Amino acid sequence: MREHGIRVGLSDEVDAAAALALVDLLDRAEVLGGLRIALKVPHEAWPRFDRLFDEHWGGAPEVPIPPAPNPRARLGALQWRWDGTRVHLEAQSEHPSGGDVPGYSPDQLLRRKPFERISKAELADVERVLTRLARRLATRRSRRLVPTSGRGVVDLRRSFRNALASRGDLVRLSRRARALEEPRIVLLFDTSGSMDPYTRFHLAFAFALRRAIRRVEIFAFNTSLTRVSREIAPGRILRSLDELAASVADWSGGTRIGQCLASFVSAHPEMVDRDTTVVIVSDGLDLGDTALLTGSMRALHERARTVIWLNPLLGDARYEPSAAGMRAALPYVDNFAPGHDLESLERLARLMN
Fold this sequence. Notes:
This protein is α/β, with parallel strands linked by helices. The protein has helices at residues 10-20, 28-38, 46-56, 108-111, 123-137, 156-163, 196-212, 237-247, 257-267, 290-303, 324-329, 342-352, and strands at 75-82, 87-93, 140-148, 153-154, 175-181, 184-190, 216-221, 225-227, 276-281, 306-311, 335-338.
């Protein structure tokens, strides 16, 4: 950076190292943004910084580096990989079986692959990514400021009050930062036949959330509503989902969204309040009474902190919410988003913050 005219000091380097411990190292945009902030890169230098970032983290270097004369030279570039516990560098084969797919993250293609095209061999990788997403959702930042020993907004009143104990010397500034709060989430999943290509992945995500966050309630619905929050065993998600499919009435059958949401609203009023995020996952193809759906959605919208509707069909640019059920629900939806791949579920984390 210094060689290319971007001023950076030792304290900025220390801040950048600390920032890397706070971001998702497998999210290229998040690492780039975190380093930009920590290194205090001026806006006019962003294009230079972004180019240097690309060259250093996986792009073509400015000066070609000759291959090293040792056995490791037959290996491809090192890439970051998450093994479920930590991030580590791993050498990629020079001729990978899946084709030449360079990138910052080995999960990049998987994140954008539609659920209906994911193979059984990729299910373990999908579950690993879903677990990581769940952990990110478990640490939502509150608007409330609390005292902190790290970085944050300077609390002048508390700083001056503490200075009285040192005879008026302002030895240290007190700071406040946004508190971490555990979100309260209710997830309602459509398990009708039209949702078959997506249901397994959506519920796997829901149960990963359940393991990471204490205040999560999960319901499956089609022609009736079933509470499934505790129908999962840690470490055996796929088998538990098969057992769940066998136990939930009319799994992969028809759907009556309005009737099922009305059952939830009347039977579980204590689960939704101004701190609750309600997430409905459905394609909106309702065979029931749309007036009942409208009334149920209005009630949820009035009670909840926010209502999010994930529709897998929205992943197709040609999709229009023309189904009667979807049209009836949309006026009471705060965020209408796709839910057809891992990347769309990653966006859910931003919608809920």
